[in-house]
């Protein structure tokens, strides 16, 4: 047994999440001396998980310094993003590198077994393209709050655990680790679509659980006196103002037009002088500003990330959003928070699901035993 077993996982986690780093930087982060770092990196390199390379830029005269980087092709996870209209599977390597990505339409009125068949086919395709000698070390899936039973179905299909989480929360984790929130400890992520969802990260940790029982941000009360009925049974939830149907109804548009394209069109038409679209956009900006002000006051995040349809609303109604924040948020919480769009796009939830799949492996990278997934032959289990 390695003398450094807990530290091996900590070091690999740093490199996995932050990318290539010098041994001196790793020593500072982990609070150990350089000889310990050299021993740890030597052991992980011998296992094929890390490698040393010269830094891309010199820090001074002489030879370029060495950095430690993960080997994405050596260990990977299967990640799934299961949406209402499309399902995506990917092979994600150490360091969060997307090695292969396949998607398929999700048929309407799909049963759990039909969905698993679609995912099995996608999973088989991406495993067959794996580099010989590579290892599958985990699996994670992102999906909407219901049905969470698909995790059990996937485990039975693949013969190993598939860790399941809610799509918006996993997208929040990915944006904080690798996207618009990288480098910040306190992040609020808001995602617009059929409804409003998101995730709250405080001191680097997601609030709540990666399951369907965690309350959604979309049920935040914003208009209790004059609000519309919500699916949760309350009145005036954020969903009733910024969900897809509500947005398009305010602008007098067809909710069946496809929410991202329709909302983009509304913002574009508002900028072109469409009075109805401009009025609907301004109203939406007010509600978004109220919601963000509430979250800033309660959480005091360093960054609020707006994604999905909300990123388009913010692009067209930033003035209204910031005016509401200035009016409603307390003075000591306004200035430090930065509002910015998400940058990972359609891969956000997928990369978040990959982090779920990597978690157990990163805790114990040299001793975790992983049975081979039955759906593929390109990779092997890591030993």
TrEMBL record:
Residues 11-55 form the HTH marR-type domain. Pfam families: MarR_2, ROK. It comes from the Bacteria. InterPro entries: ATPase_NBD, HTH_MarR-typ, ROK, WH-like_DNA-bd_sf, WH_DNA-bd_sf. Belongs to the ROK (NagC/XylR) family. This is ROK family protein. The lineage of its organism: Bacteria, Bacillati, Actinomycetota, Actinomycetes, Micromonosporales.
């Amino acid at each position: 047994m390695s003398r450094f077993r807990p530290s091996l996982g900590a070091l690999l986690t740093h490199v996995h999440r932050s990318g290539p780093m010098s041994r001196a930087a790793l020593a500072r982060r982990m609070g150990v001396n350089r000889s310990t770092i050299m021993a740890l990196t030597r052991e992980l390199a011998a296992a094929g998980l890390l490698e040393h390379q010269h830094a891309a830029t010199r820090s001074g005269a002489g030879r370029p310094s060495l950095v430690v980087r993960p080997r994405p092709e050596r260990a990977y996870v299967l990640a799934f993003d299961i949406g209402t209209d499309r399902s995506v599977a990917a092979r994600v390597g150490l360091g969060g590198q997307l090695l292969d990505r396949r998607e398929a339409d999700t048929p309407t009125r799909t049963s759990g077994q039909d969905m698993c068949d679609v995912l099995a086919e996608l999973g088989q395709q991406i495993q067959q393209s794996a580099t010989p000698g590579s290892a599958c070390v985990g699996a994670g899936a992102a999906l909407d709050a219901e049905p969470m039973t698909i995790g059990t179905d996937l485990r039975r299909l693949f013969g190993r655990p598939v860790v399941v989480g809610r799509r918006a929360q996993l997208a929040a984790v990915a944006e904080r680790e690798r996207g618009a929130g990288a480098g910040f400890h306190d992040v609020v992520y808001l995602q617009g679509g059929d409804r409003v969802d998101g995730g709250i990260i405080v001191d680097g940790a997601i609030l709540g659980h990666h399951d369907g029982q965690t309350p959604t941000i979309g049920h935040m009360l914003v208009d209790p006196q004059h609000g519309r009925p919500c699916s949760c049974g309350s009145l005036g939830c954020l969903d009733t103002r910024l969900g897809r149907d509500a947005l398009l109804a305010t602008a007098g548009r067809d909710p069946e037009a496809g929410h991202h394209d329709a909302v983009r069109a509304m913002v574009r038409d508002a900028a072109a002088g469409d009075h109805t679209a401009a009025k609907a956009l301004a109203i939406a900006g007010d509600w978004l500003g109220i919601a963000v002000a509430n979250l800033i006051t309660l959480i005091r995040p360093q960054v609020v990330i707006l994604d999905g349809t909300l990123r388009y609303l913010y692009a067209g109604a930033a003035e209204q959003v910031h005016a509401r924040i200035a009016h409603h948020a307390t003075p000591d919480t306004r200035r430090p928070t930065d509002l910015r769009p998400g940058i990972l796009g359609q891969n956000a939830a997928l990369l978040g699901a990959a982090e779920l799949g990597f978690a157990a492996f990163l805790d114990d990278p040299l001793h975790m035993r992983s049975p081979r997934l039955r759906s593929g032959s390109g990779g092997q289990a890591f030993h």
